[in-house]
Amino acid sequence: MQVFETISQLRTFRAEQAAAGRSVGLVPTMGALHAGHGALVKRARQDNDVVVVSVFVNPLQFSDLGECDDYRNYPRDLEGDAKFLELIGVDAVFAPRVEQMYPSGTPLVWVRTGRMGEVLEGASRPGHFDGVATVVTKLFTIVQPTRAYFGQKDAQQVAVIRRMVADLDLPVEIVAAPIVRAADGLAESSRNQRLSTKERDQALALSRTLFALRDGAFADVTQAAAALDASEGVKLDYLTVVDPKTLEPVAAAARPALALVAAFVGPVRLIDNLLLD
């Protein structure tokens, strides 16, 4: 496995793969890798000749362009991530520094995501999806993947990127992999590392509420949201049901429908979602 820190190194590698006619699967990550990332890599390995994983904590998608504790405290362990990726059969890791991705500082030209990026997570984190769309477009341009793999846990991100690829005619296939959950139902997330043992138990309320909503245990979304907000240690941001393609609100009884939740458990903001089909 090769680890590249510069764009020129990665492009040289990619040109070699193109000359050999090999397909390339890209798994974009911010590091702190877990079983969910492993599932994405496994799927990419099945579909492609070559697998590239990017490891880059993108400041543009954090508050104040990274001048915040959430960015500063985001777990970083490139050495551990590289060992994990080598064990599961990744061919190349692209791990650029911020100065490599944004050599002139904060870019003047961004990819804007419009209303899809302004609701839900975008309402709670203004500018977040513009930062995501901008860095993902850069990664697509640098790596030129045949396919790119994203986890369904970030359902809004998947919807936004699918629409971005369609609207900008980007030559890449977007593949969404199902959420990987621990045996107790908690969605795998890099942020779980920041939860204490007690907070991790409290965080189970998110997935329990989603599954109960799907199974008809609540009269409506409002009742489910109230129950979750009353759970010990949980401070609800939102619980809503939307169309999975447009992110427009729909009734919980509508199909297809996607329930999305965001909440703080202790100091950590967690998200989860579940298709209600």
UniProtKB/TrEMBL annotation:
<keyword id="KW-0067">ATP-binding</keyword>
<dbReference type="InterPro" id="IPR014729">
    <property type="entry name" value="Rossmann-like_a/b/a_fold"/>
</dbReference>
<keyword id="KW-0963">Cytoplasm</keyword>
<feature type="binding site">
    <location>
        <begin position="30"/>
        <end position="37"/>
    </location>
    <ligand>
        <name>ATP</name>
    </ligand>
</feature>
<feature type="binding site">
    <location>
        <begin position="151"/>
        <end position="154"/>
    </location>
    <ligand>
        <name>ATP</name>
    </ligand>
</feature>
<feature type="binding site">
    <location>
        <position position="61"/>
    </location>
    <ligand>
        <name>beta-alanine</name>
    </ligand>
</feature>
<comment type="similarity">
    <text>Belongs to the pantothenate synthetase family.</text>
</comment>
<dbReference type="GO" id="GO:0004592">
    <property type="term" value="F:pantoate-beta-alanine ligase activity"/>
</dbReference>
<comment type="function">
    <text>Catalyzes the condensation of pantoate with beta-alanine in an ATP-dependent reaction via a pantoyl-adenylate intermediate.</text>
</comment>
<feature type="binding site">
    <location>
        <position position="157"/>
    </location>
    <ligand>
        <name>(R)-pantoate</name>
    </ligand>
</feature>
<dbReference type="InterPro" id="IPR042176">
    <property type="entry name" value="Pantoate_ligase_C"/>
</dbReference>
<feature type="binding site">
    <location>
        <begin position="188"/>
        <end position="191"/>
    </location>
    <ligand>
        <name>ATP</name>
    </ligand>
</feature>
<keyword id="KW-0547">Nucleotide-binding</keyword>
<feature type="binding site">
    <location>
        <position position="61"/>
    </location>
    <ligand>
        <name>(R)-pantoate</name>
    </ligand>
</feature>
<dbReference type="Pfam" id="PF02569">
    <property type="entry name" value="Pantoate_ligase"/>
</dbReference>
<comment type="subunit">
    <text>Homodimer.</text>
</comment>
<comment type="pathway">
    <text>Cofactor biosynthesis; (R)-pantothenate biosynthesis; (R)-pantothenate from (R)-pantoate and beta-alanine: step 1/1.</text>
</comment>
<keyword id="KW-0436">Ligase</keyword>
<keyword id="KW-0566">Pantothenate biosynthesis</keyword>
<protein>
    <recommendedName>
        <fullName>Pantothenate synthetase</fullName>
        <ecNumber>6.3.2.1</ecNumber>
    </recommendedName>
</protein>
<dbReference type="InterPro" id="IPR003721">
    <property type="entry name" value="Pantoate_ligase"/>
</dbReference>
<feature type="binding site">
    <location>
        <position position="180"/>
    </location>
    <ligand>
        <name>ATP</name>
    </ligand>
</feature>
<feature type="active site" description="Proton donor">
    <location>
        <position position="37"/>
    </location>
</feature>
